[in-house]
Write a structure and sequence with these properties.
36% strand; alpha+beta; six-stranded mixed beta sheet; 144 residues; globular; 16% helix
């Protein structure tokens, strides 16, 4: 949400109500997923925000998404949010496709909580800006 404020356009993905809820109660918007990864060979700050537009067109309307990927020296964070055209039970199951990538083993899911111990570091690492860029583009578009 903060990253969006840095974009030149005022057409933001997250709603005012979602920003206010996060600020007041620290509740994440429904259908938000967060991963972390270890990054080697990168000393700068990496930022990427991608509006996934219509990921899927279902009978109830388009499903939209937004993915933010941040890299801070040895730590990478990726946040994905999905938005449905109609109200959807936040406890419903959702399958999210991503491009086949060897980078998946470098990411650890930390939200929503899996109620499992997360072991750091992951079994593999990202290496440099090229891997951060590939990570930011791992979500695939679907048109049904």
């Amino acid at each position: 949400m903060v990253f969006e404020a840095l974009r030149p356009t005022k057409s933001w993905y997250f709603l005012d109500s979602e920003r206010k809820t996060l600020m007041k109660s620290l509740d994440m918007p429904s259908w938000t997923y967060v991963w972390i990864a270890k990054c080697l060979n990168y000393q700068g700050v990496y930022t990427s925000g991608i509006d996934l537009g219509g990921i899927v067109n279902t009978s109830s309307g388009p499903v939209k998404g937004f993915v933010t990927t941040l890299g801070f020296a040895t730590l990478a964070i990726q946040v994905l949010n999905i938005r449905f055209a109609t109200a959807t039970d936040p406890l419903a199951k959702l399958t999210i496709d991503r491009s086949s990538s060897s980078l998946d083993s470098a990411t650890l899911p930390i939200w929503p909580s899996q109620h499992q111990i997360v072991t750091w570091p992951p079994s593999s690492e990202l290496s440099g800006e090229r891997d951060l860029e590939a990570l930011s583009k791992r979500w695939v578009y679907h048109q049904i």
